[in-house]
């Protein structure tokens, strides 16, 4: 796992400073997996790791969350041969007008795939149209868990979170390798502890 954390740090997926998150709070760390579209070797590697987990969990389809989750979902689908679907953020008033793109049948089981989980809200929002279409969702698979309560929030709604790694494990690896200083590590630990969702 150390190699995994070092790879995502080297790729610029973990940034340190002051960042305003979607929730409006200011964080000393930003997790940015959108950059993976420009890092094909790392995207392929992460897709393979997610594919292994998806096969262990078992499902009929993967469902990616736009926008960051789509390339990750494609990489996972290619590595696993599990078909992919994805939800649109909004229905287009032209073309097919579909909210879910790709082939699927009601009653199939789906693993939702995304980049990172913080409070779980965006995952629950993305799951709703899948369930309304008759798909069965029990599992959410992400690259990194920020450990701010997303797993608890999802569990209360009946979904299980799976991740390749956690933010605290990443911080421990980077600190051990002296790639971040003790102050940065402390600030991130305090931020995680002080900003829990339930």
Task: Fill in the keyword field for this structure.
198 residues, alpha/beta, Rossmann fold, two-stranded antiparallel sheet, globular
The first-to-last residue Cα distance is 28 Å
Any idea of the CATH topology? Rossmann fold
CATH architecture: 3-Layer(aba) Sandwich
How many structural domains in the coordinates? Answer: 1
Q: Helix and strand string, N-terminal first?
A: HEEHEHEEEHEHEHH
Radius of gyration: 17 Å
* Uncertain runs: none
The share of residues in helices is 40-55%
Describe the global form. Answer: globular
Count up the helices. 7
Structural class: alpha/beta
- In order across it, which strands form the biggest sheet? 5-4-3-6-7-8
| Name of the CATH class | Alpha Beta
* Percentage beta strand: 15-25%
Mean pLDDT: 94
How many beta-strand runs?
Answer: 8
Let me know the largest β-sheet: 6 strands, mixed
Task: Walk me through the structure.
Helix 2 packs across helix 3 (69-80) and helix 6 (167-176) runs antiparallel to helix 7. The mean pLDDT is 94. Strands 5-4-3-6-7-8 form a six-stranded mixed β-sheet, sandwiched between helices. Strands 1-2 form a two-stranded antiparallel sheet. The radius of gyration is 17 Å and the shape is globular. With 198 residues, the protein is α/β, with parallel strands linked by helices. The protein has a single domain (2-194), classed as Rossmann fold (3-Layer(aba) Sandwich). The longest helix has 18 residues, at 40-57. It is built from seven helices and eight strands; from the N terminus they run H-E-E-H-E-H-E-E-E-H-E-H-E-H-H. Helices cover 41% and strands 25% of the residues. The chain has helices at 2-10, 40-57, 69-80, 121-132, 150-156, 167-176, 182-194; strands at 14-20, 26-31, 61-64, 84-87, 100-101, 109-117, 136-145, 160-166. Helix 3 (69-80) links the parallel strand 3 and strand 4 (84-87).
């Amino acid at each position: 796992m150390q190699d995994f954390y070092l790879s995502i740090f080297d790729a610029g997926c973990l940034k340190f400073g002051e960042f305003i998150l979607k929730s409006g709070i200011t964080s000393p760390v930003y997790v940015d997996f959108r950059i993976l579209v420009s890092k094909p070797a790392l995207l392929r590697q992460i897709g393979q790791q997610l594919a292994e987990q998806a096969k262990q969990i078992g499902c009929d389809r993967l469902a990616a969350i736009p926008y960051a989750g789509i390339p990750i979902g494609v990489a996972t689908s290619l590595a696993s041969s599990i078909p992919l679907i994805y939800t649109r953020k909004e229905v287009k008033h032209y073309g097919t007008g579909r909210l879910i793109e790709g082939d699927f049948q009601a009653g199939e089981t789906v693993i939702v795939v995304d980049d990172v989980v913080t409070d779980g809200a965006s995952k629950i929002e993305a799951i709703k149209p899948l369930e309304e279409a008759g798909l069965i969702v029990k599992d959410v698979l992400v690259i990194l868990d920020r450990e701010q309560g997303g797993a608890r929030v999802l569990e209360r709604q009946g979904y299980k979170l799976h991740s390749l790694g956690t933010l605290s494990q990443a911080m421990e690896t980077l600190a051990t390798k002296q790639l971040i200083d003790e102050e940065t590590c402390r600030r991130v630990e305090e931020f995680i502890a002080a900003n829990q969702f339930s």
